[in-house]
Amino acid sequence: MSPEQAAYEIRQLLRRELDDCERAIRNEDLHRARNELDDAIRKLKRIANSLQ
Which sequence spans correspond to the domains of the chain? Predict the structure, then answer.
């Protein structure tokens, strides 16, 4: 994965996951919000590993 592609993937991932997390918080579903953050972390780690 090129650095440009990684940057694009990271931006898209954060936008989606943080939107989902924000929506869960507004709905007072803190368990779902935590799951969304955990999911974002897993995906970011996967991207980081692909850059090594």
Answer: 3-50
